[in-house]
Amino acid sequence: MADFKGEKLVKTLATKKVYDYIDTEKGINQISREIFLNKDQIVHYPRGFDGGEKYKTIKRFTYNGFKGKLPVGVFKSENYGWGFTKPLYPFTDYIDDNYDFDEVVIEKGGKVQMDLKSKKLYLNETSLDVLQNSFKSIFKKNRAEVDFVLQINLHKIFPSSIAPPTKTYISDALANSLASWGNSIDEFSDADKNAIKDLFDKLSIGTDFLTSEALAKTKELVDTKYIQATLKKFKELMALRTDGESLEKQWQVFLKDNSWIFSSIFAQPVILFQREAYVGGKTIDNHNGKFNDFLIKNSLSDNVSFLELKTHKTKLLEKTAYRGDDVFSTTKDLTGCIVQVLNQRDNFQKEFYATKGKSKGKGNFETFNSKCVVLIGSTKDLDENQKYSFELFRSNSRDVEIITFDELQTKIESLQKVMTTK
């Protein structure tokens, strides 16, 4: 008897035709397919490579309504043993390992459901198309990456014979990669973050890709996240308990890195002109030069302002009352800070034209009764009597505005509330 490999019609009944798959060389002889005659239904019986069962539990695939033209995602030839195609193997393994289905029912336009009671998995052509496209892009991406790495190394080994590879992008690769993201920024490496930033910059240029509305929404989201991160860092600094030069430097760095906060402090459109700016006052022997913590410039009028910074732990008032129980003196730190910023402004204005002339190329600036601000201490450390004394002192300080760190925190929180309120 000659060797035979393939399907063979073994039964023709009133309702269906039955085919067996026979491979005389491997000794396979088992049911393969049923074609129903009085309804649009085909049944496949999956077969392993060497015969027997292909899956742990799935015994049959039933197709309804396809008129002989089967959907994507399934084998259409008996030579492959029927069942799901190679790109869907991850899906097949998952179903086979975690469920006890004995039949897969695929109906054109039909339902998608796991019927655990009847041990049936229901799919349709749309769900198969989604699975096929998703896994197909992953297989293509993996294949492309392997080929790319191969080409790179072959070029390194045989630079004169093999050209370097050309970068090609596999469609849907980005979507599938981002689908596995757990929504934590910690999952991204610095390279990931830079790549996303570069991609967004490039896409933002093309208005046909991102609409103005989409860009505005994205900016709103970025701004909100940025304010949240800034507020978190602000609160971390506020929680520090050790005062001193180190803490003051940390606040200086924070305000430099988040210079947009100055607009909240000065209630006008301002920019950071310079940190630790020279404001004059040197003697003939080059001593006693004055430096201001922050020199701020109004972005519209170019008028400069002066900000002197202490820390949130700096005491505003003396612990004991100066007289009675409701009159408290300001600390030397607060009065010293006020005198210092006034002295800086005075020196700056006296030497304004000389300073401005020597600063050509660093931006224009003017001084029109320049504003002075001191950022210092916290009102949370004051009792009611002390707050009364502090407000009396502050409200009568005409040339210097005094702002506390807890008040600045409230300003940022208010901005956050505005950004997040729909």
From TrEMBL:
Question: What InterPro entries does UniProt report for this protein, alphabetically?
Answer: SduA_C
One matching Pfam family: SduA_C
Instruction: Tell me the protein's name.
Output: Shedu immune nuclease family protein
The Shedu protein SduA C-terminal domain is annotated at 246-408
Q: What's the source species for this entry?
A: Flavobacterium ardleyense
